[in-house]
Amino acid sequence: MTNLTLAIPSKGRLMEQTTDMFARAGLVVRKVGHVRGYRGEIEGLPGIDVAYVSSGEIAEALKSGSVHLGITGEDLIRENISDAATRIRFLQKLGFGFADVVVAVPACWLDVTTVAELEEIALPFRRQHGRWPRVATKYINLTRRFFGSKGFGDYRIIESAGATEGAPSSGMAELIVDITTTGETLRANGLKILDDGVILKSQANLFATNAAAWTPDLEALRAELSDRLANSIPSKATVR
Q1: Ramachandran angles phi, psi of 196, nearest 5°
Q2: Residue 64 belongs to domain spanning
């Protein structure tokens, strides 16, 4: 029988929180082979291979179907898989990895509190500066879809490779789309979130791909793992 492959974060806080969640479910995830390797197993659940993968690459692996299941942030799935609603199954919110994808503008823009007001200043901005307002972001697809849904198109995206929240103060962009947990970093950089600027309230999820080959045995393993993990997550933890 082909084993089920589960991709989990390979480092950082998400890896620690994932391991802790499995432990609460009575499941021990351990690496197989070299301690610095990228393969693992779950004690008590034979038939499941664990792959340690970076959070961003988990979205790509689910998209291609090279893994069956993955644990990563919803923001990465929505950003990297345009047809996530049909390609991916959202199995379980896990109650950690909370982060909001938001539109933030300079706090000194007192008259700009909504996307509609941002649209109102775009043309005067272009007349004054000879270009549309620039939006720095790592979330190019989420940004385009969100602004498109609001009917706003008078902007230019600047792809951010570093600390996005610093883009306006450095002169790289006028506003940003980025993730935040408390908003403190945004405020420290002189930014405010638009009143209607929350694009996505994200958290870690257990995802399944529809791009992989699923057999009844693999579906049974998936259901068993989902049930075990669901019992380890306080119901209030997944709601914000």
Answers
A1: -110, 30
A2: 4-98+203-238
